[in-house]
Write a structure and sequence with these properties.
The protein is an alpha+beta fold. It has helices at 2-66, 233-251, and strands at residues 76-83, 86-94, 99-115, 119-136, 143-152, 155-162, 166-168, 171-173, 175-183, 187-195, 205-215, 220-227, 256-266. The chain has 2 domains: 1-66; 76-266, Porin. The protein has 2 helices and 13 strands, in the order αββββββββββββαβ.
Amino acid sequence: MVSANLSSLYRIGPLQKSLKYLGTRGAEEQVVRQRKDKRERIVGMSAKALLSILTVFFLLRDGAKGETVTSNLPPWGVTVRVGTLGVGGDLVVRLGSYFNLRGGITYAIYETELSLDEADVAARFRWLTIPILLDCHPGAGDFRVSAGLVVNRNRISLSATPTQPIELDGIAFDIVTLNGKITFRDLAPYVGIGTGNAVYGNSRVRFACDFGVLFHGPPDVTAEALATHSSYQQALNVALQNEVDELETKIKGLQYYPVLSLGLSLRF
């Protein structure tokens, strides 16, 4: 029995060594593969970073060659434009070869009246914005990336004169007048891209356009109504507020306003 056991151990010993060797080798191969994958990721990231740097370099170089910034014209210009924010204009001031400061005002107003079954409604849409933007021109040319803040006075006003009882929060009320208003964040961030550089080179007139987004936040709804009889004015106020809260919940996702504008930049 002893000799058999010794013989078994003798046969098992090399097997254990072989398994141990194979296990160690497998672990080493896994480590090698991990190191290789890591090196390939590093090389790939480095190549992408180098490509990005070279791209920016050639853009800047080619942009600088395209048209000289030195000019007898003043380092400022104006832009007149029309777009989704209305009609307006900007004053553009050059801060350097690649940066301009841009500020302006845009305005639009639209009024309409509707005759519905329950009321006569007058609606007024007023768009008033004052942008203060920094334009970055990566190639020292027309293309730009813009970011900044916009003083936002956009609002929608509604006024209704009911011709029959109005149902609010499931209750019918006799109402003399009903007024509502939708407003937005007073100071709204803006980001966008565009083309046109009012202070680039020796050109006096250039085409300008912008594509961007105004982050005006969730719409804020307010409303007030005057009851025919003061006895149920308080109940009317509660029902109206419930309707306002429900409307704000439905439209809270409308936090972004698309900005598209076309115009001409001028230097004098």
